[in-house]
Design goal:
188 residues; alpha+beta; Rossmann fold; 3-stranded antiparallel beta sheet; 8 strands; binds S-adenosylmethionine
């Protein structure tokens, strides 16, 4: 059965609930204490989870509430404005962002776009400039005009350097929007 879009108030409610389930901000788990390096468990802290500053025990994304909301907005805007192209995430961890992107496509009835997810699934390597540069070099030319480029790790000096250098080299002057302490995006 197809539900007329105007009456489909269930879709945004479903996406809201899904976001909270993915990052567990309404279903608190625990977090690893990253400062000690001992993987000791600490109590859930809503402020940390909102900004994606913790390492969750069970949540399937570490980006936090604000970046998940922003991701949904970017995906919905791309669909509303009919910006062509698939969605892609590089570095997926437990897959929460990919699940949200897939859910946006499903709830809006888009059966044409794919969600591409890339990961080594070999843990976190030491940060360096090359990986971010490599991803931008390969994928940026494929981003549609007015498409969204979201960077989760802009707080990492190596990531910021790669992004800033890439933008300078390719004369990208689109304004950067800050999502939270580490997340940014711009439109091509
Ligand atoms: C910070 S986590 C990503 C968090 C994820 N976006 C989320 O929503 O929770 C980084 C991920 O990138 C992957 N990764 C890091 N370096 C990589 C590389 N050079 N090639 C492929 N995957 C890589 C890791 O395996 C890890 O899953």
């Amino acid at each position: 059965m197809t539900i007329p879009a105007a009456n489909n108030t269930a879709a945004p409610r479903y996406l809201d609930l899904l976001r909270h389930a993915l990052c567990r901000d309404h279903f608190p788990d625990a977090r690893y204490d990253m400062s000690s390096g001992s993987l000791q468990l600490m109590p859930f802290d809503p402020a940390l989870r909102a900004e994606g500053r913790d390492w969750p025990l069970e949540a399937v994304t570490m980006v936090g509430t604000k970046r998940l909301e922003n991701l949904q907005t970017c995906c919905c805007t791309a669909l509303e404005e009919e910006i062509p192209g698939d969605f892609v995430e590089t570095g997926v961890w437990r897959g929460g962002c990919g699940i949200l992107m897939r859910a946006v496509l499903t709830t809006t009835g888009d059966e044409t776009r794919k969600v591409w997810l890339f990961d080594s699934f070999a843990g976190l390597p030491k940060p360096d400039v090359k990986k971010t540069w490599l991803v931008l070099s390969h994928l940026y030319p494929r981003v549609s005009p007015a498409g969204f480029v979201v960077i989760d790790d802009y707080a990492l000096p190596t990531c910021k350097a790669a992004v800033d250098n890439f933008r300078a080299k390719h004369s990208i002057h689109s304004p950067i929007t800050t999502i939270d302490w580490s997340g940014i995006f711009w439109r091509k």
